[in-house]
Amino acid sequence: MKHDKNAQYCLLVDLAVGLCYRLAGEEVEQFRLYTLNQTDMCLDISLALGACVSPLPMASAT
To answer: Domain residues for 28?
Structure first.
């Protein structure tokens, strides 16, 4: 796994999700994820935790 970036990524997402579930079991109600230039990882963690993603409407440039 040392050289397998995909396996490392999946492991990190899995660990973060597991930690969030553990904290939720201790009655933590909110989580804040800071991207630190890892927006894909934050999105994957959020989706794994059940977040719903919907596009935001954009104002037209008129």
So the answer is: 5-48
